[in-house]
Amino acid sequence: MRFSELYAPTLREAPSDADLISIKLLIRGGFVRKVAAGVYAYLPLGLRVLKKIENIVREEMDRIGCQESLLPIIQPAELWHESGRWDDYGPEMMKLKDRHERDFTLGPTHEEIITSVLRSELRSYRQFPLSLYQIAVKYRDEIRPRFGLMRAREFIMKDAYSFHTDWESLDKAYKKFYNAYSRIMDRIGLRYLVVEADSGAIGGNESHEFNVLAKSGESTLLYCDCGYAASDEKAEYMLFDKSNSVEQMSPLERVETPGVRTVEEVASFLEKQPGDIVKSLLYHGKKGYVMTLIRGDVTLNESKLKAHLGDQSLRLAEPQEVLELFGVPIGFIGPIGLPDNMKIVADHTVKPLANFVVGGMKEGTHYVNACYGRDFNIDEWADLKMVQEGDPCPKCGKALKGTKGIELGHIFKLGTKYSEKMNGYFTDENGNSKPYIMGCYGWGISRTMSASVEQLHDKNGIIWPLSIAPYQIIISALNTSDEQIMKVSEDLYKILQKKNYEVLLDDRELSPGVKFKDADLIGIPLRITIGRKLKEQKIELKLRTSSPKDVEVDEKYSKVLEKIEELLNNYNPGNFLEVR
Amino acid sequence: MRFSELYAPTLREAPSDADLISIKLLIRGGFVRKVAAGVYAYLPLGLRVLKKIENIVREEMDRIGCQESLLPIIQPAELWHESGRWDDYGPEMMKLKDRHERDFTLGPTHEEIITSVLRSELRSYRQFPLSLYQIAVKYRDEIRPRFGLMRAREFIMKDAYSFHTDWESLDKAYKKFYNAYSRIMDRIGLRYLVVEADSGAIGGNESHEFNVLAKSGESTLLYCDCGYAASDEKAEYMLFDKSNSVEQMSPLERVETPGVRTVEEVASFLEKQPGDIVKSLLYHGKKGYVMTLIRGDVTLNESKLKAHLGDQSLRLAEPQEVLELFGVPIGFIGPIGLPDNMKIVADHTVKPLANFVVGGMKEGTHYVNACYGRDFNIDEWADLKMVQEGDPCPKCGKALKGTKGIELGHIFKLGTKYSEKMNGYFTDENGNSKPYIMGCYGWGISRTMSASVEQLHDKNGIIWPLSIAPYQIIISALNTSDEQIMKVSEDLYKILQKKNYEVLLDDRELSPGVKFKDADLIGIPLRITIGRKLKEQKIELKLRTSSPKDVEVDEKYSKVLEKIEELLNNYNPGNFLEVR
């Protein structure tokens, strides 16, 4: 492609509402344009990157025998009523009515559609296992769309669904997808970490996330040299199960703590440590209210609580709700004197404690010397702790390390959640009717583009890995009115294209400075500079992440071509940055 | 691909609501499934066809220097308010609100979006000409979705937009697209006809449609051996402009015509011919009501009327409206005694007439012996006639022929319609600001799949042209428990794949009858049958549209391979059918 003909309007400044380096650089480099909050147009360079990502994902899906199909974007509401998710999904689901006032959603995911398409036709055990995927546009009506393509409202995903007659078959497919996802990551060439993950509202029993490492990542990941890795929502830790072996329980006492609210304030006021306080947090779910207790110096992990109680609709009670329920502001509630039928779930961090501080259930007071078993009863013990860097690895006990990631892939064992609700049954060898077992496997295609830029960039612009660069080589012809320079530039352009390199020929009538700046901004892996040195039979080869090197020009460009091959074969910009 | 692993559920019967042979066969063949009215899922075979169509279109767009991009599906209402089309487009436009109650549409077309994306950046004459395209999902909320993929509500289009500083440049681009579209048709291999077309609500000055010929086509096309061809909405005819050279105008008379309503009824009642009647049709548009007159035996072409009056919002007045306006039922209105300010537009067919019949403007009456000029005045003459087979060609005067087509491509010279309204201005060589000139170019991707089946099928199923067949070759291994048959089948499968043929190996444990039926239904161009004849060293090659031929199997399959190449190279199923 000739740069003079390419529509790639580069900008000096990013728009003021671009909030992450990736969206700033993608806009400045002419890859994308914002059309509305969270809604983007892909210009030719952006689409090239997108197609390369799509093709890598497509090839790896095809390789494991997953068959490409294409499901509709608008989905009838009835299917979501069947699965029970029409209301569950909440305002993040974009909804519309057709001219006959029939409800539709712009699909955020396609479990309902695929189950409905297959349910009348996938009937005999002979038809299993089966897996289908699509690469398509999806929607999520984010309340505040941000981070460019990372939290867009319209985005491109690959989603796959697998169907099985038994768990063993699902396990096999899950492993295949796991390996395919690892290959996709390897082929793209970004640093990544696979972690155990929470399956959240999608449901199911086992789940892994494939994260690209980046400082700006929204996911906190914990990992250990022993191989253990998990998202913070899922991470466990080695529990040294100590019960409280208190020598003496001191008498319970209600003390005045006027105006103190946070754990830190209470601890400081009472001259104690945060670890001596037990936090009481009230949640509301499908079965009403539940009180949770956790040590004051650790954070409660809501995903673990939801999983423990099997209730994805759980939410922290609002201050106003708490006030109406107990007549006490939220900072002063506690486990003593609760209604008998209110369940108390305590985190394991509470177990070794005695003589601790809890809310006084009266404004401006706390109890000191509280002890469970004596002053109140705990109904259930659970691991509710948000694990942090430094906590002991649940596998080996060594201190966990922490890093930040951007989730690109997420795979789930769904089990029979959808098939049971949506009549997805098959007949087994013995003539019995059973719900089939499903897996689902998502990959963020447009997000991959952003994640790559978040991980790989420098002050001059984007650094694309070779695998997804819009062009592999840019030829910067420095003086377009110099016949010799243009002849060599055109020659090389044609020769390299014949060798199946993707080449951008910068034939614009612009200064060398502007051409170099654009080449760096756009992030092309290899720049060939053809300028004054040509008089000495030399041109310059420069990888995006290294300094330029002169190469001699002979008649058939043999040295140049050899060097280009060598440079590109060894180009690994992921090594260039210290991320993890 | 092994048929045993392919998800292509074939059906014996089409669902009862499948209304065209194409959707019946596409569903029966396992290519698509209906999810809701006008909303379809593409199963693996269907997606393969779709991708092949996309790739042909993509290659021809790339070849003319049109650059691929990707625009959002959801479009903010503000842009449509700017162009004035938010209300114009009517209930066919799918609309939705996001969680902040902001209006969006699911784009039926992308003139607004592309203009808004480019307007702030396409500013200097140096940046022109430019053309961009996308292949994407589009929406049209049909009141009664029907004809399968032909009038779906969610469908896939290629849409391109070109930008120019002068008309000459637009003309050049238009010609390029015209040629590219002809190449796309040639490459797909269906019989087609390019016709002059009406540009309708899209607007602009010149427009052509690319139609696949099919008996079930919704478009009526007129054409002539001299090369003239037009859609019936656009078609003109050679006008032998005769004014009325009446010897004697008879006296106007109002006669009783109780209970007669249609032209035929009136003619029969008065013992006249339909050509002696002048029909009066009342329309309503932006400037109020307008009365149109046309000879009783021809049909009024609303597209011509809209174009003549420059008002795309024109519609026939409702019976109730007419009754309220004139106090007369719709069958008895006429041009005599109309309010002075009501414009009368008459078709050229009225010009030679005198002493004709018109509505009496009183229920149950008609005027006979009416003459324009004497009894009422005509404000404008226009060509409003729906041209039909047999009318004289406007170029050469010979009788026009008629046929039916399915519109796949439509190209338009838009001019400055959108750039003027949406601030799409550039600075020319002299520093003057001017609106840029646009063209737009659509191609129905998913519709191409249906149109192909409409044109090419027989009682046994689909007949794909080689270019878009999901697989080129199917190997029917007739007895999967016969080792020799399976060895040859597997050998050929591998050899043909290595030679880059797309091959489906029917390795299912099913009877020969079922395998043959499926191969025909799915429409694979070449079937290789490997069965009993193998004992005599023979296998059978059969093109979808011819009878089988035995070919000898030698050790390296050289004769088989040679024959396959020859058969596929000469496969042209379009010649097999008499369409035009």
TrEMBL record, chains A, B:
<keyword id="KW-0648">Protein biosynthesis</keyword>
<dbReference type="InterPro" id="IPR002314">
    <property type="entry name" value="aa-tRNA-synt_IIb"/>
</dbReference>
<dbReference type="InterPro" id="IPR004154">
    <property type="entry name" value="Anticodon-bd"/>
</dbReference>
<keyword id="KW-0436">Ligase</keyword>
<dbReference type="GO" id="GO:0005829">
    <property type="term" value="C:cytosol"/>
</dbReference>
<comment type="similarity">
    <text>Belongs to the class-II aminoacyl-tRNA synthetase family. ProS type 1 subfamily.</text>
</comment>
<dbReference type="InterPro" id="IPR007214">
    <property type="entry name" value="YbaK/aa-tRNA-synth-assoc-dom"/>
</dbReference>
<dbReference type="InterPro" id="IPR004500">
    <property type="entry name" value="Pro-tRNA-synth_IIa_bac-type"/>
</dbReference>
<dbReference type="GO" id="GO:0004827">
    <property type="term" value="F:proline-tRNA ligase activity"/>
</dbReference>
<dbReference type="GO" id="GO:0002161">
    <property type="term" value="F:aminoacyl-tRNA deacylase activity"/>
</dbReference>
<dbReference type="InterPro" id="IPR036621">
    <property type="entry name" value="Anticodon-bd_dom_sf"/>
</dbReference>
<dbReference type="InterPro" id="IPR033730">
    <property type="entry name" value="ProRS_core_prok"/>
</dbReference>
<keyword id="KW-0030">Aminoacyl-tRNA synthetase</keyword>
<dbReference type="Pfam" id="PF03129">
    <property type="entry name" value="HGTP_anticodon"/>
</dbReference>
<dbReference type="InterPro" id="IPR036754">
    <property type="entry name" value="YbaK/aa-tRNA-synt-asso_dom_sf"/>
</dbReference>
<keyword id="KW-0067">ATP-binding</keyword>
<protein>
    <recommendedName>
        <fullName>Proline--tRNA ligase</fullName>
        <ecNumber>6.1.1.15</ecNumber>
    </recommendedName>
</protein>
<dbReference type="InterPro" id="IPR006195">
    <property type="entry name" value="aa-tRNA-synth_II"/>
</dbReference>
<dbReference type="Pfam" id="PF00587">
    <property type="entry name" value="tRNA-synt_2b"/>
</dbReference>
<feature type="domain" description="Aminoacyl-transfer RNA synthetases class-II family profile">
    <location>
        <begin position="33"/>
        <end position="465"/>
    </location>
</feature>
<dbReference type="GO" id="GO:0005524">
    <property type="term" value="F:ATP binding"/>
</dbReference>
<keyword id="KW-0963">Cytoplasm</keyword>
<dbReference type="Pfam" id="PF04073">
    <property type="entry name" value="tRNA_edit"/>
</dbReference>
<keyword id="KW-0547">Nucleotide-binding</keyword>
<dbReference type="InterPro" id="IPR023717">
    <property type="entry name" value="Pro-tRNA-Synthase_IIa_type1"/>
</dbReference>
<dbReference type="InterPro" id="IPR045864">
    <property type="entry name" value="aa-tRNA-synth_II/BPL/LPL"/>
</dbReference>
<dbReference type="InterPro" id="IPR044140">
    <property type="entry name" value="ProRS_anticodon_short"/>
</dbReference>
<comment type="function">
    <text>Catalyzes the attachment of proline to tRNA(Pro) in a two-step reaction: proline is first activated by ATP to form Pro-AMP and then transferred to the acceptor end of tRNA(Pro). As ProRS can inadvertently accommodate and process non-cognate amino acids such as alanine and cysteine, to avoid such errors it has two additional distinct editing activities against alanine. One activity is designated as 'pretransfer' editing and involves the tRNA(Pro)-independent hydrolysis of activated Ala-AMP.</text>
</comment>
<comment type="subunit">
    <text>Homodimer.</text>
</comment>
<dbReference type="InterPro" id="IPR050062">
    <property type="entry name" value="Pro-tRNA_synthetase"/>
</dbReference>
<dbReference type="GO" id="GO:0006433">
    <property type="term" value="P:prolyl-tRNA aminoacylation"/>
</dbReference>
<dbReference type="InterPro" id="IPR002316">
    <property type="entry name" value="Pro-tRNA-ligase_IIa"/>
</dbReference>
